[in-house]
Design a protein that fits this description.
By secondary structure, this protein is an alpha/beta fold. The protein has a single domain, classed as Rossmann fold. Helices cover 32% and strands 20% of the residues. It has a six-stranded mixed sheet, with helices on both faces. α5 links the parallel β5 and β6. α1 packs parallel to α6 and α2 packs parallel to α3. The longest helix is centred in the last third of the chain and has 19 residues. The N and C termini lie far apart (55 Å).
C-alpha cells in the first residue's frame, strides 16, 4: 500500500485582515481601548482553534498618523503579542487600502490554496487622503471581490456611505457601534463567526456573522432586518 495514503493534508490558510482606524478621534470615549482589547481577545481565541481543516491567519493594517502594517499576516497560534494601537493623527484610508490590496494579491503571502479572505474595516471618521482610487482598486480586485467583507461604523461621524460600499454581506452591509462596549460586541461576533467558519465543512464559502442573543441584540449594533 502506498504511503501517500497516510499523508495528512496540511490545513489551508484562512486569512483574516482588519483595517483599523487609529486616528486621533479614536482616543475619545474609550474607543481605542476597546479596539486594543478586542484584537487581543481575538488573537487568543483564534490561537486555540483546531487547525485540522483551516488555519486562521491574522493581519492588522492601521491608519492613523500613517497607514502601516501593524501585524503582518501570521498564523494566529504563532502570534506571541501585539503592540497596543495609539490613537493619533488623521485618517489615511486610501494608503491603508493599497497595503491590503498588495497583501491579498501577493501569492507568497496568501497562496492560491488559501481559503477566501475575510476583510474587516472599522472607522469612526472620514478619510483624509485621496482615497477613492485606492479604495476602488481594493474592492474591485479579484481576491477582494471573492472575499467576505464587513464594515463597522463607530460613533456618529463616520462616512457611512463609504463603509456601506465596502461591506458585501447583503444582510448586513454596514454595522454600527455607538460606544466602546458595542465595538467589543462586534469583535466578539466576528471572532466567534470566524472560529466556527474555520471548522465548517465549507470554509471557502462566504462567511455569515453570528450573534449571541444575550449580548449582541439587533438594537445594539443596528443590524438591518
Amino acid at each position: 500500500m502506498s504511503l501517500k495514503k497516510f499523508v495528512v493534508n496540511k490545513a489551508r490558510p484562512l486569512p483574516v485582515i482588519i483595517l483599523a482606524d487609529t486616528s486621533g478621534s479614536m482616543s475619545i470615549n474609550g474607543k481605542i481601548d476597546a479596539l486594543n482589547l478586542s484584537i487581543k481577545d481575538m488573537i487568543s481565541s483564534f490561537a486555540s482553534e483546531s487547525r485540522l481543516r483551516a488555519e486562521i491567519h491574522l493581519s492588522v493594517v492601521t491608519f492613523g498618523s500613517k497607514a502601516a502594517t501593524h501585524l503582518p499576516l501570521t498564523p494566529a497560534h504563532q502570534i506571541e503579542q501585539i503592540e497596543n494601537f495609539v490613537a493619533q493623527g488623521t485618517t489615511p484610508l486610501g494608503a491603508a487600502c493599497t497595503i491590503v490590496k498588495d497583501m491579498i494579491e501577493d501569492k507568497e503571502c496568501i497562496p492560491s490554496r488559501a481559503y477566501r479572505p475575510i476583510i474587516i474595516l472599522v472607522s469612526d471618521g472620514y478619510p483624509t487622503d485621496d482615497y477613492k482610487n485606492a479604495f476602488d482598486a481594493l474592492i474591485n480586485s479579484d481576491r477582494a471581490q471573492k472575499a467576505t467583507r464587513f464594515a463597522l461604523s463607530i460613533g456618529n461621524d463616520a462616512d457611512n456611505d463609504l463603509l456601506e460600499s465596502f461591506g458585501n454581506d447583503v444582510e448586513a452591509p454596514l454595522l454600527f457601534a455607538h460606544n466602546a462596549a458595542e465595538i467589543a460586541h462586534f469583535f466578539r461576533a466576528v471572532t466567534m463567526s470566524v472560529a466556527n467558519h474555520s471548522k465548517s465543512q465549507k470554509p471557502n464559502e462566504p462567511m455569515k456573522l453570528e450573534f449571541v442573543n444575550d449580548e449582541l441584540a439587533d438594537d445594539d449594533l443596528d443590524i438591518p432586518l
